[in-house]
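Q: what sequence does this backbone want?
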C-alpha cells in the first residue's frame, strides 16, 4: 500500500500482506487503520500476481 499526502506525494510504503502459492488475505480493517494512523489523504493498493 502506498500512502499519499494532499499533494499526492508518496510519504510511505507499507506491505499489508504477503501470500503463498494458493493466495493471500487482505483485511480491510488493517488497510484503513494504517491509512488513518499515517494521516494519509490518499492510498494506492497494488497487487502482483505471479505467473506460472
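A:
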Amino acid at each position: 500500500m502506498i500512502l499519499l499526502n494532499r499533494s499526492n506525494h508518496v510519504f510511505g510504503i507499507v506491505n499489508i500482506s504477503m501470500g503463498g502459492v494458493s493466495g493471500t488475505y487482505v483485511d480491510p480493517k488493517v488497510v484503513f487503520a494504517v491509512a488513518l494512523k499515517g494521516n494519509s489523504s490518499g492510498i494506492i493498493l497494488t497487487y502482483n500476481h505471479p505467473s506460472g
